Amino acid sequence: MSWRAPLADDLEQLPADRRRQPRSWQPAGSAGLQSTAPGSPPLLDLASNDYLGLAAHPALVEAASQAMHREGVGAGASRLVSGGRSVHEQLETALAAWLGRERVMLFPSGFQANLAAVQALADRHTLVLADRLMHHSLLVGIRASGARLQRFAHNQLDALEQRLLQARRDQPQRRLLVISESLFSMEGTSPDPARLSALCQRYNAALLLDEAHALGVLGPGGRGLGYGLAGVSLISGTFGKAFGSGGAFLAGEALVGEWLLQHSGPYRYTTALAPPLAAAALAALTQINKHPERASQLLERAERWRNRLEAAGWPRPSGQGPILPLLVGDNQRALALQQQLEQAGLLSVAIRPPTVPAGTARLRLVLRHDLPPGSLALLISALGSP
């Protein structure tokens, strides 16, 4: 049998309403995007994760431009060869101080950072207890570590405690790792971080908290929901969301940082984060510290949007942050609503399985600080009746 046959069979069985098609976009004015397809109109961006509108901020563009002219576009090698630059160290030091952590390690992507995080905290002898809706990168990391996985119901910390209690009864000395996100990217929901942290301390379990979508928006000064919690062993964060740049990092104890330096394949065997991206992320941190009101205003706006959507007869989007999932259930209906919004000048992508569980297709509405006035009224009109 040809090696191509399994691929062809899989694609043949894939339903039409679950097929993906990439599209190319270009910026089109304030908070707008325009498809590169000929004749496409500009759309108001309700899809990207640029929560604070920093991706095109002049301070970030200038910082990236200066770094590019000073150091080139790419680093050319891993941090352990010749790819290290002073901007990497500056960003790591600034983030460590901002988050109150001993050590920060940079990675070119959030996927790599999560692989490295799981492999640092788990091995084949470890039991991992993870939220059922964790990001795919975390699941891949668990599989790569060889650890045994048990999932608990989404944000149900009573269920987690029962599993922790049972695990300690069965094997008192077993290595345990709990994994959760602080803001789930497709649900818009968050766990109780203080209780989550306390549970892990009580049962002597390491806690990996993925803060990719929370940093810059949630927690004191945008420092995330894990800020100041002693039970959080390792924080995973990215620069591709509220920071408006690219790349990622892990923040934790000096011990974990040294282990990553000495043993982490995702850190060792990859080209270092591009200097312009690191410089832009450093400039974004300055902006976040200088303008904390942007995050609070964004959260206030998110509450107004939830109230209006609910008043219009739609299911109230869960959570408190800038991610507002509009659950519709059926894949075809979600795709139809996506097209309906595009015809009205709005971009919101239909999220379908396997990204979300079967029967929970949704429009993922994302608020940005720089959305123009009247955006909500336009959305409500474009959605029509539920």
> Could you please say which CATH topology of the largest domain applies here?
Aspartate Aminotransferase, domain 2
Q: Give the H and E element order.
A: HEEEHHEHEHEHEHEEEHHHHEHEEEH
* Structure summary, number of beta strands: 14
Beta content = 15-25%
Quick one: CATH superfamily of the largest domain?
Type I PLP-dependent aspartate aminotransferase-like (Major domain)
Can you tell me the CATH class of the largest domain?
Alpha Beta
The oligomeric state of the chains shown is single chain
Give the end-to-end Cα distance, rounded to a whole number of Å: 49 Å
The total of helices stands at 13
Count of separate structural domains: 2
Layout of helices and strands, plus pairs?
Elements: H1 4-13, E1 25-27, E2 32-35, E3 42-45, H2 58-71, H3 86-99, E4 103-107, H4 110-121, E5 127-131, H5 136-145, E6 148-152, H6 157-170, E7 176-181, H7 193-202, E8 206-210, E9 234-238, E10 248-252, H8 254-263, H9 265-268, H10 275-290, H11 293-311, E11 323-329, H12 331-343, E12 346-347, E13 350-351, E14 361-366, H13 375-383
Parallel strand pairs: 3-12, 5-6, 5-7, 7-8, 8-9
Antiparallel strand pairs: 1-2, 2-3, 4-10, 9-10, 11-14, 13-14
Helix pairs in contact: 2-10, 3-10, 4-5, 4-8
Commentary on this structure:
This protein has 13 helices and 14 strands. The chain folds into two domains: 115 residues, Alpha-Beta Complex (Aspartate Aminotransferase, domain 1); 233 residues, 3-Layer(aba) Sandwich (Aspartate Aminotransferase, domain 2). It is of the alpha/beta class and 386 residues long. The strands form three sheets. It has a seven-stranded mixed sheet with strand order 4-10-9-8-7-5-6, with helices on both faces. A four-stranded mixed sheet has the order 1-2-3-12. A three-stranded antiparallel sheet has the order 11-14-13. The radius of gyration is 21 Å and the shape is globular.
